[in-house]
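#structure-requests
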Amino acid sequence: MGRRSRIRRWARWGLGIAGGLLGLEVVSALWLPAPWPDRTPLVAVEPDPALGYRLVPAQASFTYQAEVHTNAEGLRERPLERLPGPRVLVLGGSETFGKGVAAAETFARRVEASLHGGAHTVNAGVPDWSLGQSAAFLEQRGAALSPTGVVLALYWDDLFTGAAGAAREEWGPRRWARDLGVLPRLAPLYTRSRLLMAARNAAKAASHRLGGTAWYRWREALLTGGQEPDLELAWARAQVDLQRVADASAALGAWAVVLILPIEEQVVGEYPQASFQSEARRRAEAAGLRVVDPLPALRRAAAAGEVLFIPYDGRPAAAGHQVLAEVLGAALADYQQTPR
């Protein structure tokens, strides 16, 4: 077979495969939700000797399609000098930071409307921060921010120790793409495809399940009430960190509450009675912290047909943040945020 014949045959195969994939992509719209494509540059972090890492200050980047601007302190927040009067500090990971949504759409910003005395919120959420990192931030930066109240948003993967301790497990292909420097180039491409996003999530789940990673085992145990020895150790660490939050808040003369953020399957899946919610409540109350549980309100909103979570991601979408803000605002109604 001549060279031209081989080239024509390869071209036909390539076109056939491309056409088939395009057809599947079109048909997949019948049962798969549309993904939220990434825009670049992606949110950047930098090492921090005390916290493991923090957001790069004064950056302009994106989380999905939403713009991210950080202030001089490395927070996704307005310049602090623009926030006079009493402040409420909101701590947490990706959910508090507001992955995928605009800064004004986060529950941290929306709950301001419910605060008394013209209080402002300070969003100190950083993607993938652990509970220990949030506690360390409060201990080290709390005095400078002078909050009258502290809200800690606790999500299940905040139990991982994060960059400040043992490294949080990251899915292999994503880690390799990041290490090779191609992730920022690939993300805007594959995040536009329903098929690729569904395949990515399926491959990620299979990799974690077959590899027996802590990420998969802990999540399953928290949803089903199963027992995992290292998860018990993580809860013991969480108890210590929750006490750190309580003690640091008391030292500042600030009230403190814990907002327990449910796993997506607790809201729209088959695990409404997952053990994460009850164990998180038990640990927080043992530390003397007040607990706010938005699960019932989120389930009502989901039953009404609202899209509360980002497709293929599981973090709250704008509608989810709105429900969180409403529940948190109602719980904080009896707090009077007045200057000390």
